[in-house]
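Handout, section B. The chain below has 208 residues.
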Amino acid sequence: MASPRPTSRVLSRGDTAAFLFFIVLGVGLAVWAVVHSVTRIAEALSGRDVRVSAPFLDTVAQAPLGPGGAPMPVELGIGVIVAPELPIASLWALVIAEVLFAAVVVTVVVLLLLLTADILRGRIFSRRNTGLVAAAGTVTLVGLAGVPFFQNMVANGALARMSDYTYDRGLVQVIELPMLFGAAFVAALASTVFTVGDRLQRDTEGLV
């Protein structure tokens, strides 16, 4: 009767150190996301002089780029405006965007840290790890689509209030579709790799 073979190789010290660094980096990223969002929400709830990032389309502004600082026309792509105040709907959109951002970052970090912990214990391919990778990819896609959507609501409200509802910036694409599709491809590829790896590992174990 053949003895079972180990299903995973022992990690080297370099591998272990790299994963431990990844854990520290992940925890730091999660803490930064929470602090950033809390700070943004606190600034917005103060009700005055809220900094808002706003995308623009076919909008020309003047910048001191000419000789001696002479104004020259530049076409804006994205800019930061300081809104004296935000409409209630935009204020709530900002809160939702920041809460969603922090929640997505923390969730993805936790899922990947659980995956890292399993790898450090010598378990790489498993149904649990496949689920963790798929969940992390799904949550990332939700964040890439949802956060810009609510941020656009904030920008719309700020610009409307500042212009007394007379400024029309046209249709602006706030969700980066190439980034969204790229993230979806990477998430699908990673899930497929772990699914196939899990199946091959179980098939290999069954032959031993």
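Note. The radius of gyration is 24 Å. Compare this with the example in section A.
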